[in-house]
Amino acid sequence: MLDVRRLRLLRELAQRGTIAAVAQALAYTPSAVSQQLAALEKEAGVPLLERTGRSVRLTPAAVRLADHAETILAVLEQASAELATGRTELTGTLRIGAFATAVRTILSPALVALSRDHPGLELLVSELDPVNAPAALRAESLDIALVQEYDYVPAAPETGLDTEPFLEETIYLAAPTPEPLAEHRDSLWIAGMPGTLCHLMTVRACEAVGFTPRIRHHADDFGTVLALVAAGQGVALVPELGALNIPGGVALVPLSTRRRTRLAYRRGTGSHPVVAAARAALHASCATLPSRQAAE
């Protein structure tokens, strides 16, 4: 019989490519991952990994088994969800991952509603960049999370997850005066930390109009970004959710670029009563958001 936990490790290796990456994502040591995969090879009775020096590659049999692992894990999640529908009260832990501006504007009201309607739930919130959310979901350290993509930064395909539309936002150029984006080729820029979606979006949006931004400051919190713009330290691109409270001396120019946020959860868990309650609360909270465009 194949061990489900080991199948999950194989699935992650197929997704991430290296044992070190799997270990980091799932909070294992690399040696523990290697030992578990070696045990899975014995269970399968066929070679699963081809070792070349310090790297490994999945054999054709391992690729097929990883594909089956996707189905197996989703079916197990679905079975768990169906069993949970028989409970009269929602209990247990709900782990939610969201980016900073969503925690303040969307998640906080949703938590109030969840606590009121389902007092037996233990709510755990993790603030994280959306780029890290898929791995956290597959590692089962989160149950539901907000993931994103921008125009110019499309989301990569993610295995083992289901997603649904949640929020689409306008991207604004924040600057001292309302000038087109192309006029800021010589300006200093403020962007998210390297490696974040916000940083990559800023670079690619500027490149799309013919220049590479000179980034002086890095900040992930859009309140901080706007304060730096107000202090004359540069210009920045800010999504609508981060532009609801604008300090004096900052002008906003709407761009055609959009940010799209989706709800994500492990495949097979969408109908689980706890995840379904989270989905409903988050959508209800999102529906009450003020619109900057309406205010304009």
UniProtKB/TrEMBL annotation:
Gene Ontology molecular function: any one: DNA binding
Domain HTH lysR-type: residue ranges: 2-59
PROSITE patterns (UniProt xref): HTH_LYSR
Keyword Transmembrane tagged: no
Cellular component aspect of the GO annotation: protein-DNA complex
Pfam family for this entry, one: HTH_1
Keywords: Activator, DNA-binding, Transcription, Transcription regulation
Cited PANTHER family: LYSR SUBSTRATE-BINDING, TRANSCRIPTIONAL DUAL REGULATOR HCAR-RELATED
Family named by the database record: Belongs to the LysR transcriptional regulatory family.
Official protein name in the record: LysR family transcriptional regulator
Lineage of the species this protein comes from: Bacteria, Bacillati, Actinomycetota, Actinomycetes, Mycobacteriales
